[in-house]
Amino acid sequence: MPNEKVRKILSNSIGCLCIIIFFSLTTYIVYVFYSTIAITTLEEKRYGKFIFHFIFGNWLAINIYFHYIMACVTSPGLAKDYQHLARQYPICKKCSFNKPPRTHHCSWCNVCVLRFDHHCPWLNNCVGFYNYRYFFQFCCFMATGCLYAGFFGYREYQISRLGVQVFRHIDSFFKVPDILEDLGVDGFITYYIFILTVPVGFALTGFSCCHAHMISRDETSVERLLQIDYKKDSITYNNSCLDNWKRFLGVYTLGEFIGRILLPSMHKPRGNGITTSDYDINTDLLPHQQGHISYGSNIYHHISDNYLFRKYRSEMSSWRKPHTISREWQHVVKTC
Ligand SMILES: [Zn+2]
Ligand SMILES: [Zn+2]
């Protein structure tokens, strides 16, 4: 029990630190844009460039902040809130609540999370059924924003300060004294913040691509690592890659894509995160907010003879580590 408290405090401390780092760095780059780059661009009457960077930069910044905040504050979907829909599922040994399929226990938060993907210290939150879209869109917008700042912002910053681009990215390794001399201490720090966004942007791009691949296959990080395929034996599951994306994003037309994906949107994912057979049920309200348990009961009756469900229950009752897991991931198994 003391270990759980220590872990909780450690998790919150690291999470708060990550949130402060995120807001500090992103806000500082926005500040540099308005205080240095935008003023110089306007003074030099480069209006076309100013308008482009103003619209594109603000669109990115709004989407980054929105999806980050929503991913942080949105509950990923806790199994304990859906117990009236989950009484016939196995009990979690750590928190003693029923675990619907695809639910995993987060050791950092000590809760069972629906369609658990991972615990993200940068969000100080789990990533699960209800906030996965926010998390994924944040990664995409942040990757774009980092590469935009790292390749265009850093060039415009030099032009604003020195009148012309003097240093290249490679110079950040070999011309440190020259950069310090030409830009001063504050310009030196700002320059390297812009440089830092380049590797972060590439790393986030790779990370986003990995998640895009998993979304295409409708699998979570945990399922991928543990090589659990919940749908191979499912009678009901036969969704294509495109269907998986439509369901994940909650869009079915081009208009919805523009309004819900390119612009901030708070629409909820389809389904309730408890069963795979309810994906076509549109639940704008959370199940426990809908006020009729019969809805959940119908789902149970529908899936009670489902082979996938029986298989999951038998697997959970005699949980064993898959033989194919490498040793380095075995500690992950213990925490899920
Ligand atoms: Zn649990
Ligand atoms: Zn967690």
Automatic annotation (TrEMBL):
> Which PROSITE patterns does this one have?
DHHC (PS50216)
EC number, UniProt record: 2.3.1.225
Q: Provide the protein's localization.
A: Membrane
Q: Which residues form a coiled coil?
A: none
Q: Name one GO molecular function term.
A: protein-cysteine S-palmitoyltransferase activity
Ranges for the Palmitoyltransferase DHHC domain? 91-225
Per the record, what are the reactions this protein catalyses? L-cysteinyl-[protein] + hexadecanoyl-CoA = S-hexadecanoyl-L-cysteinyl-[protein] + CoA
Give the way it sits in the membrane: Multi-pass membrane protein
Which N-terminal residues, if any, form the signal peptide? none
Instruction: Tell me a GO cellular component.
Output: membrane
Q: Which residues cross the membrane?
A: 12-34, 50-70, 134-154, 189-207
| Principal location | membrane
Keywords noted in UniProt: Acyltransferase, Membrane, Transferase, Transmembrane, Transmembrane helix
**Matches recorded under InterPro entries:** Palmitoyltrfase_DHHC (IPR001594), PFA4/ZDH16/20/ERF2-like (IPR039859)
Query: What is stated as this protein's family in its record?
Result: Belongs to the DHHC palmitoyltransferase family.
- Note on domains (UniProt): The DHHC domain is required for palmitoyltransferase activity.
- PANTHER family, alphabetically? PALMITOYLTRANSFERASE ZDHHC16
Q: What name does this protein carry?
A: Palmitoyltransferase
The lineage is:
Eukaryota, Metazoa, Spiralia, Gnathifera, Rotifera
